[in-house]
């Protein structure tokens, strides 16, 4: 059989190996670094900016766009300006992009959120977190300050880059015709997205989309198609219920979890961790992506469950993109709070071109991937990222 490396190189490989002399005067992409934050997160924001500047942007000077549902105060702005090499724009998010839409009954939504809080679902009881996830799922790319840009790099508070990034990832994404780039893929907490996959697969089905090869990354295991089985067979999967297909806006009537209704497919909970993203804004602005978002939104899942923007972006990619559209930034050393990806510590044979799930993996490989949480090494790095060589 062909080696894993050969198969994966067909789809994707590192843009650059080794250190380059950064092209400080080279051409720049039409791109920006996007930071969504609150005033109280200033320390975490500065930590992230220092890391971004030290390992990349001091050479490339890409501009920043800061977004907030409130107003940034002068301390926040001045401190940020003292640490950034690129220009900075400050954006306020309007209520149309943040908060409950008018077709939702806020009382119903708040009750749903409270129930998730009572059930101790992570961030489930925090209303602002639900708004944040919905904003990053369906609105950030529509913000006026992003209109002039074609590309963005998402930066969150309290992250760290371990390795110098000596090339321009945007230029390479363009040259290699990539749409979406990630550096960590992990499993979602099941209880935050019990019904997300049913809606995503309903979208796919209603639009007669056939997989371009990426969808399988998110599917637990291939099973026989329902149409091949008689209804009496215990493996026969019921079609999606009418209330999902015809769900009325604002009903928030997400049905109970019914894994039997998923056409033989269930979600393996895998998703690209979206606190790091380098992606093409055009894709988010496409009719297809927005139809997807709207259908997901209409279900009420952003309130009645706690759908994150990471599984939303990932399942949209699964439905709409092909493996060759995706780039795995396996050479970026990156840490967000407790989970990190360290290229040097990646298990032998994994540092080259491999996106899991896109390949036919052996049972043994699958097990190793599971155990690794898909390259996210949960143990913290030693101080200052020592222990992660790049
Ligand atoms: P986690 O990474 O999932 O633990 O969530 P974070 O607390 O880091 O939130 C994700 C991103 O959204 C970060 O960039 C936060 O600064 C931002 N964020 C979360 N909630 C709010 C909010 O209520 N207002 C604003 N302006 N930003 C928020
Ligand atoms: Mn975060």
TrEMBL record:
The keyword Membrane applies. One of its GO terms (biological process) is cell wall mannoprotein biosynthetic process. It comes from Melanomma pulvis-pyrius CBS 109.77. GO terms for cellular component: Golgi apparatus; membrane. Keywords: Glycosyltransferase, Membrane, Transferase, Transmembrane, Transmembrane helix. Coiled coil: none annotated. GO terms for molecular function: alpha-1,2-mannosyltransferase activity. The keyword Glycosyltransferase applies. The lineage of its organism: Eukaryota, Fungi, Dikarya, Ascomycota, Pezizomycotina. The chain holds residues 89 to 478 of 511 of the full protein. The active site is at 277 (nucleophile). Belongs to the glycosyltransferase 15 family. This is Glycosyltransferase family 15 protein.
């Amino acid at each position: 059989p062909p080696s894993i490396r050969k198969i994966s190189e067909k789809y994707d490989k590192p843009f650059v190996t080794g250190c380059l002399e950064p092209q400080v005067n080279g051409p720049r992409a039409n791109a920006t670094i996007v930071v969504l934050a609150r005033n109280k997160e200033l320390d975490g924001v500065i930590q992230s900016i220092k890391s971004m500047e030290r390992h990349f942007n001091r050479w490339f000077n890409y501009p920043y766009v800061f977004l907030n549902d409130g107003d940034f105060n002068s301390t926040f702005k001045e401190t940020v300006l003292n640490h950034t090499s690129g220009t900075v724009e400050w954006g306020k998010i309007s209520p149309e992009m943040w908060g409950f839409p008018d077709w939702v009954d806020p009382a119903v939504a708040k009750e749903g959120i409270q129930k998730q809080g009572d059930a101790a679902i992570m961030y489930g009881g925090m209303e602002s977190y639900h708004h944040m996830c919905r904003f990053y799922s369906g609105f950030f790319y529509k913000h006026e300050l992003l209109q002039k840009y074609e590309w963005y790099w998402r930066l969150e508070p309290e992250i760290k880059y371990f390795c110098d990034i000596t090339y321009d990832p945007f230029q390479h994404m363009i040259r290699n015709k990539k749409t979406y780039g990630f550096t960590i893929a992990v499993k979602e907490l099941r209880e935050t997205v019990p019904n997300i996959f049913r809606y995503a697969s309903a979208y796919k089905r209603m639009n007669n989309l056939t997989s371009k090869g990426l969808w399988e990354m998110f599917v637990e295991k291939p099973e026989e198609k329902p149409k091949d089985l008689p209804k009496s067979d215990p493996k026969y999967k019921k079609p999606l219920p009418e209330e999902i297909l015809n769900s009325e806006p604002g009903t928030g009537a997400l049905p109970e979890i019914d894994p039997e209704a998923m056409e033989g497919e269930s979600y393996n909970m895998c998703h690209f961790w979206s606190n790091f993203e380098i992606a093409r804004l055009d894709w988010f602005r496409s009719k297809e992506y927005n139809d997807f978002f709207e259908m997901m939104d209409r279900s009420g899942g952003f309130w009645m469950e706690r759908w994150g923007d990471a599984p939303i972006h990932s399942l949209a990619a699964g439905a709409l993109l092909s493996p060759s559209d995706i780039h795995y930034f396996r050479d970026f050393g990156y840490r967000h709070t407790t989970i990190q990806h360290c290229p040097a510590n990646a298990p032998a044979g994994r540092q080259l071109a491999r996106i899991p799930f896109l390949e036919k993996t052996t049972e043994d490989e699958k097990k190793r991937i599971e155990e690794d949480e898909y390259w996210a090494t949960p143990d913290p790095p030693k101080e200052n990222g020592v222990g992660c060589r790049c």
